[in-house]
Design goal:
The protein is α/β, with parallel strands linked by helices. It has one domain: 3-Layer(aba) Sandwich (Rossmann fold). Helix content is 29%, strand content 23%. It has 10 helices and 11 strands. The chain has a 7-stranded mixed beta sheet. It has a 4-stranded antiparallel beta sheet with strand order 1-2-3-9, with no helix packed on it. Strand 7, helix 5 and strand 8 form a beta-alpha-beta unit. Helix 8 runs antiparallel to helix 9. The chain is globular and about 50 Å long. It starts with 27 loop residues before the first strand and ends in a 5-residue tail after the last strand. The chain binds zinc ion.
């Protein structure tokens, strides 16, 4: 276990629903399941091999959010991300292309292609998509140092290293804020969405991609679903996502399911197989053309969008 991770062993902060504030935590979605002695440096890296570890998860009876409670102190989480390892450049590029494809139909609805901010930018692969889509300025922010070190020379200067901080951006000037597979990790996702709202210009959009725990894929996998993860402090459904964005002031809010395109060897890595067998299968697949072909699959993800009203 890494030095910065001791704090994760003390999930002692009980919290109400981070979207609607309901304190009724009697509906247990999954009891805590973790063995922190097995937690490696990849536990807080994106697109890692799933470990089937998670904090106690409860389902909010009011807004449908599933959230971890109790959780560790926010500082422990920030430290764990800062030190997380990174080895998924190829997959990040595939994900960025998927997100670029998802973004396309929304571009014509934006007020302009001025400033875009990508929160949880990783190695900046999606910043390339934003620049290629015509944005004048594409800025990323990423708490982990390793993916930034792996960024291409073109986009590395556009990525700020650290936690997202609203005050580092001009208020009311962004046309688009994107946040992919990141809201689940934030101690306070509502506060992030409210900050995004303030940074957007009227008509600007917040576009997020996250898991939908109610998606048939995740329901079928049950306790073996990779979304039950120690990194995920909350899990959204389409209903709870729409609820959160509306509560933050967004209009025209919608959430729909998407497919992701990844190479076959990546899909195999997420499959619920025993660890040793999985490693052998993935390594073998990576060596072949078959393992490298990209395949679109529904993986239980959704895209959600909300617009800052013109009149606000
Ligand atoms: Zn709630």
């Amino acid at each position: 276990m890494m030095a910065g991770m001791e704090g994760l062993m003390a999930p002692d902060h009980a919290r109400p629903c981070p979207v609607c504030g309901d304190a009724d935590d009697s509906r247990v979605f999954a009891e805590a399941a973790y063995d922190l002695s097995k937690l490696g440096e990849h536990a807080f890296a994106s697109r890692k091999v799933p470990e089937y570890m998670h904090y106690r998860l409860v389902q909010c009876p009011t807004c449908d959010l599933v959230y971890a409670s109790p959780v560790p102190a926010a500082e422990s989480l920030v430290r764990a991300y800062g030190e997380a390892a990174y080895d998924s450049g190829a997959e990040a590029a595939c994900a960025a292309r998927t997100y670029g494809r998802i973004l396309k139909p929304y571009l014509s609805r934006l007020p302009d292609l001025g400033m875009a901010i990508d929160v949880g930018a990783g190695d900046g692969a999606f910043l390339t998509e934003l620049a290629d889509a015509g944005f004048e300025s594409a800025m990323g922010v990423e708490p982990s140092a390793a993916p930034i070190a792996a960024a291409s020379p073109r986009v590395r200067p556009w990525i700020r290293h650290g936690a997202f901080r609203e005050e580092e951006y001009p208020a009311g000037e962004a046309s688009l804020i994107t946040c992919f597979q990141t809201l689940e990790h934030l101690p306070d996702p509502m506060e992030f969405c409210r900050a995004a709202f303030r940074l957007l210009k009227p008509g600007g959009a917040l576009l997020v991609v996250d898991h939908d725990y109610r998606h048939v894929v995740n329901r079928a996998l049950g306790r073996r679903s990779p979304i039950l993860d120690i990194e995920h402090l909350q899990l959204f459904s389409r209903r709870s996502m729409v609820e959160m964005l509306r509560r933050c002031g967004f209009a025209g809010v919608e959430a729909r399911h998407i497919t992701n395109r990844y190479p076959l060897h990546y899909w195999l890595r997420l499959a619920p197989l025993p660890g040793g067998l999985k490693r052998r299968v993935c390594d073998a697949a990576r060596q072949t053309w078959l393992g490298r072909i990209t395949i679109p699959l529904p993986v239980g993800n959704m895209v959600a969008v909300g617009y800052k009203p013109i009149s606000s």
